[in-house]
Amino acid sequence: MDARLRVGFIGTGRKPERAGPQGYGMAHQHAQAYRSLADICDIVACADISEENARGFAEMWGVPADGVFTSVEAMLAKVPLDVVSVCVWPHLHAPLVIQAACAGVKAIHCEKPMADTWGNCRLMAQECERRGVRLTFNHQRRFGRPFREAHRLLAEGAVGELRRVEFGSGNLYDYGSHNFDLSGYYVGERPARWVMAQIDYHTTNFVFGTHNENSAQAVWRYDNGVFGVAATGVAADLVGCHNHIVGTEGEIEVGAREPGAPVLRHRRHGGTWEAVDCGKEGLHGPGYIERALADVLGAVREDRVSELCARNALNATELIFGSWESVRRRGRVELPLTIGDNPIAAMVASGDLTPAPRG
Ligand SMILES: NC(=O)c1ccc[n+]([C@@H]2O[C@H](COP(=O)([O-])OP(=O)(O)OC[C@H]3O[C@@H](n4cnc5c(N)ncnc54)[C@H](O)[C@@H]3O)[C@@H](O)[C@H]2O)c1
């Protein structure tokens, strides 16, 4: 397919100079990435319920005046689009992705985490699948050099056969979504068989409007026998790095918390650490969203599956909701996960979890 792709936005965010922890304006980062792919796509429309945000975005990224909307429905009805970036908060991902899919776009690139309930995650994947719409999620970190190099070391057998993937993270859901995705990347994109977890939730922690625990420990096992371990919040020090990959003959650390440690290092059991050159690339960039969108648009043009496909995102996200479900059931949860709701939100609503208001 050689025709240029027409890109639209659902949710533009504020201008980046006002970015903060409850509003990063991720749409602007997507727009920067589409601009780097200007030989194959054009940003032709955007919709945001805030007119100020929509207009600010349009001005910054050259969206034509007749492509600026305060209603998603109006944008989808009036502008023919090939690709839509969905950059709203998680509780809006599923309804707006499904709306765009029903409008007949070819591809939807949605921000992570997938959705606010496990039922909505499966529903959005299902509705895109049966309409032939490519649905991808912005787990861009896997395109970063430290993560790619860790994957290469693993594939080359530098640490022997893979036994365990671990991560230390702020939480299981908001940031943890990236880390469960990376775990799936290291282990060869596969579902897990079971998951078992405990959380501490003593102070309300809303990130982008959705509950996140204060601290968690989770253990799971993939269908090839590899174990996963996650520690979040104060427990993250237990893992001591962003990703810890353990093989039969050695270990790899991405983003070790030890002062002065390189972003990527590995060693044989009993040996000394060897640093791996990752240029100037860190845990967050630069250039990762550009590479993510290059893969997404490449998949549309070349009729192939993107690494950021819904199937991989479901494998990752099942472990988030499965971990919380394990807390609710006080036991190990066999997968596939059959619940439809969000267990942490349900436990707060029922009074089983009683986080005190923050501050
Ligand atoms: N990939 C990453 O590393 C990363 C980093 C930060 C945030 N995120 C994710 O990006 C997503 C968006 O976060 P953000 O920080 O960009 O949010 P934001 O608050 O900056 O922007 C969201 C925009 O959505 C608009 N909006 C709200 N309801 C709408 C509706 N019904 N229709 C159209 N527009 C609507 C708001 O007016 C706002 O402009 C979240 O899911 C967040 O988790 C991802």
Please state how the strands of the largest beta sheet are arranged side by side.
16-15-14-13-7-12-11-8-17
Hetero compounds: nicotinamide-adenine-dinucleotide
* Uncertain parts: none
| The top level CATH class name of the largest domain | Alpha Beta
Multimeric status of the protein: single chain
Q: First CA to last CA: what distance?
A: 54 Å
CATH architecture of the largest domain: 2-Layer Sandwich
* Structural class determined from secondary elements: alpha/beta
For the sheet with most strands, the description reads: 9 strands, mixed
Mean pLDDT: 96
Radius of gyration: 20 Å
Question: How many E strands?
Answer: 17
Give the % helix: 25-40%
Order of helices and strands: EHEHEHEHEHEHEHEEEEEEEEEHHEH
Strand portion: 15-25%
Looking at CATH, the homologous superfamily of the largest domain is Dihydrodipicolinate Reductase, domain 2
Number of helices: 10
Structural domains: how many: 2
Shape: globular
Please provide a written account of the structure.
This protein has 359 residues and is of the alpha/beta class. The protein folds into two domains: 5-140, 3-Layer(aba) Sandwich (Rossmann fold); 142-284 and 316-350, 2-Layer Sandwich (Dihydrodipicolinate Reductase, domain 2). The protein contains ten helices and 17 strands. The strands form three sheets. The chain has a nine-stranded mixed sheet with strand order 16-15-14-13-7-12-11-8-17. β1, α1 (26-36) and β2 (41-47) form a beta-alpha-beta unit. α1 (26-36) packs across α8 and α5 runs antiparallel to α9 (310-329). The longest helix has 20 residues, at 310-329. The radius of gyration is 20 Å and the shape is globular.
